[in-house]
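Long-time lurker, first post. I've been practising inverse folding by hand and with some scripts of my own, and I keep getting stuck on stretches where the structure tokens seem ambiguous. Below is the full token string for one chain I'm working on. Before anyone asks, I'm not after the true native sequence, just a reasonable design that respects the backbone. If someone could post their per-position residues I'd love to compare against what I wrote down in my notebook.
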């Protein structure tokens, strides 16, 4: 089990398949806002924190990188 406070800015977010999903910009309520710097479309994206499996030096998701990118929300 992880605590949201374990998720910090600039941590790498990886899918269950080890694929890079993004980099944490900051927590926004119960969502993780990813930086736009490594986003192909140059926009911020949000993923729900309930997708997180565990946190160590990275944020590990329960979903594959492909699934996470297909389901993330785009910032307005």
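-- Answer (accepted) --
I ran through it position by position. Result:
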């Amino acid at each position: 089990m992880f605590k949201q406070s374990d998720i910090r800015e600039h941590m790498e977010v990886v899918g269950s398949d080890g694929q890079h999903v993004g980099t944490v910009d900051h927590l926004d309520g119960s969502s993780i806002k990813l930086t736009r710097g490594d986003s192909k479309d140059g926009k911020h994206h949000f993923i729900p924190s309930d997708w997180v499996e565990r946190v160590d030096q990275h944020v590990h998701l329960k979903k594959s990188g492909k699934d996470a990118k297909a389901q993330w929300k785009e910032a307005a």
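A couple of notes from the structure itself: The helical segments are 65-71. Residues 20 and 46 are 15 Å apart (CA to CA). Happy to go over any region you disagree with.
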